[in-house]
Design brief:
Low-confidence stretches: none
CATH topology of the largest domain: Rossmann fold
Oligomer: single chain
Mean pLDDT: 97
Shape: globular
Helix content: 40-55%
Structural class: alpha/beta
Number of helices: 22
Bound molecules: 6-O-phosphono-beta-D-fructofuranose
Strand order of the largest sheet: 1-2-11-10-8-9
Radius of gyration: 25 Å
Number of domains: 3
Largest sheet: 6 strands, mixed
CATH superfamily of the largest domain: Glucose-6-phosphate isomerase like protein, domain 1
């Protein structure tokens, strides 16, 4: 952002500082002016600490940055990921379900349609229990998704969120980490002859995934007296590195492609979502794509930023970070089924926007992505909400719920929604010292004042509420796409390439040099004092 734009935000923030959210919420028409709907999603941002003038200033910045041009360039497939010279076309993955004609290159659309068809055929065959044409043995009951980061978080979120739509044909498991406890536990639980392993890795170089793949391969081979070919029949690969997958002995008919034009964290809509398609069936998987396409269509057609949900969400984030200076952002789904949403958004937002230099290499003037974290409500209320209500730092929140539940326990759902609404109100309104004092009945005046101080809620703590009509494949697709587009808009405003992730590389390289040392090789003198000390401690005990 430019210095002048940051100055404008600072001025707006200073003007609003003395105004408590209680006063803003008392303005007539507040909810109507600061809430918007797109398809099955309602965004209420009336509890954000902003007013017309601040919002106008934010919208003006989006206009100055040319958000519509950037949006159209992305859908068209321009080279937005300049550091890797790649287009950004995750939206093309769901364009088949869109109401608008896709501007993506025709060959990309063809390739995606072909892969979706292949994926559907594989899912059908496995559902029929007749995937011998693919070389997969009959009787598969369990599917293990072997992948990490974008090859895990999106599929895992969706599989858990859509538990109500599971066909029950397969039990689905996720094994992202290299922690052998999990791998060993999974092998204890599952029958190797009835297990299908989905090796999902865009690069096919990820240590965790390949290592676990080799372990599971040995485990399955043992069940066939060491017959490697029969073990390989239990593997399907999803990768942009098709040759590497085939080199592992997985034949072409069991390798589904991914592409460089789709970032890992934006890839759940591709064959990376195979585990989801196996869990909920292809018709529901297509409904999931349809929900995302609905949000794409909204993003593309709501040209007035005031009515564009992703732009509004992005602007609210910029306001909280750069206007009000909040360094964290909480995601609290009031739906246990969305328990993986905070982790998914951590990767989506922090891996995309966790950068301090711009696309041209220059140091950025403004702070960028806040720390994204969260947990499900109401559990979170009984854990860390104390700090959010009365702690010294303000953490803006996204509170997310569904109007209609997927069960008949009406009282439970009413209690869940009541808590969601109550928390947003409590954060915004707070409780004054005078109100707390009026409630304090015990002790002398000094004691009552001390107690009242501790029972005062400052309030003025912002949150947005996102209400889904119900949690369905469509609404989940729309919700995820909403956040994807929020990231794209923030990337533009912050001048960040949201599609590379150089910051994850250094640690990977160091781990590679440390691994042989843990196996007994000499400790290189170049290792730092801490690494050397810790290696000595590990060696002392092993
Ligand atoms: O290390 C980070 C990362 O590259 C993520 O961006 C990615 O989602 C994850 O690793 C997994 O990568 P892959 O799908 O290539 O195995």
């Amino acid at each position: 952002m430019l210095a002048g734009q940051l100055d404008t935000l600072a001025r707006e923030a200073a003007r609003l500082k003395p105004l408590h959210l209680r006063e803003l919420l008392a303005e007539p028409g507040r909810f109507e002016r600061f809430s918007r709907r797109a398809g099955p999603l309602l965004l209420d941002f009336s509890r954000q600490k902003l007013d017309e003038s601040a919002l106008q200033a934010l919208g003006a910045i989006a206009e100055q940055c040319g958000w519509r041009q950037r949006r159209d360039a992305m859908f068209r497939g321009d080279l937005l990921n300049r550091s890797e010279q790649r287009p950004v076309l995750h939206t093309a993955l769901r364009a088949g379900e869109s109401q608008l004609p896709s501007p993506a290159p025709a060959e990309v659309a063809d390739e995606i349609a072909r892969t979706l068809r292949r994926m559907g055929e594989l899912v059908d065959a496995l559902e029929r229990g007749d995937a011998v044409a693919y070389g997969i043995p009959a009787g598969i009951t369990d599917v293990v998704n072997l992948g990490i980061g974008g090859s895990d978080l999106g599929p895992r979120l969706a599989v858990e969120a859509l538990a109500g739509y599971h066909s029950g044909r397969f039990r689905c498991h996720f094994l992202p980490n290299v922690d052998g406890h999990e791998t060993a536990a999974l092998m204890r639980r599952l029958d190797p002859r009835k297990t299908l392993v989905l090796l999902v890795s865009k690069s096919f170089t990820t240590q965790e995934t390949l290592l676990n793949g080799a372990v599971l391969r040995r485990w399955i081979a043992q069940a066939y007296d060491g017959d490697e070919a029969r073990a390989a029949a239990h593997f399907v690969a999803v990768s942009a590195n098709v040759a590497a997958a085939q080199a592992l002995g997985i034949p072409p008919e069991r390798v589904l492609p991914m592409w460089d034009f789709v970032g890992g964290r934006y890839s759940v809509w591709s064959a990376v979502g195979l585990v989801l398609a196996l869990a909920i069936g292809m018709p529901n998987f297509r409904a999931f794509l349809r929900g995302a396409a609905l949000m794409d269509d909204h993003f593309r057609s709501a040209d007035d930023w005031r009515n564009n949900l992703p732009v509004l969400l992005a602007l609210i984030g910029v306001w909280n970070r750069n206007g009000l200076g909040h360094a964290a952002h909480g995601v609290i789904p009031y739906l246990d089924a969305l328990r993986e949403l905070p982790a998914f958004l951590q990767q989506l937002e922090m891996e995309s926007l966790g950068k301090r230099v711009g696309a041209d290499g220059g140091e950025l003037l403004q702070a960028t992505v806040p720390v994204v974290w969260g947990s499900v409500g109401t559990n979170a209320q009984h854990a860390f909400f104390q700090a959010l209500h009365q702690g010294s730092d303000v953490v803006p929140l996204d509170l997310i719920g569904a109007v209609r539940p997927g069960h008949a326990l009406e009282q439970n759902h009413a209690a869940l929604l009541a808590n969601l609404l109550a928390q947003g109100a409590a954060f915004a309104l707070g409780k004054t010292h005078a109100e707390a004092l009026a409630e304090a009945t015990q002790g002398d005046a000094a004691e009552r004042a001390a107690l009242a101080a501790q029972r005062t809620f400052p309030g003025d703590r912002p949150s947005s509420t996102l209400l889904l009509d119900a949690l369905t494949p469509e609404s989940l697709g729309a919700l995820i796409a909403l956040y994807e587009h929020k990231v794209v808009v923030q990337a533009l405003l912050w001048d960040i390439n949201a599609f590379d992730q150089w910051g994850v590389e250094l640690g990977k390289v160091l781990a590679k040099s440390i691994l042989p040392v843990l196996g007994g090789a000499d400790v290189p003198a170049a290792f730092d004092a801490s690494t050397r000390g810790l290696i000595a401690a590990i060696r002392g005990l092993s």
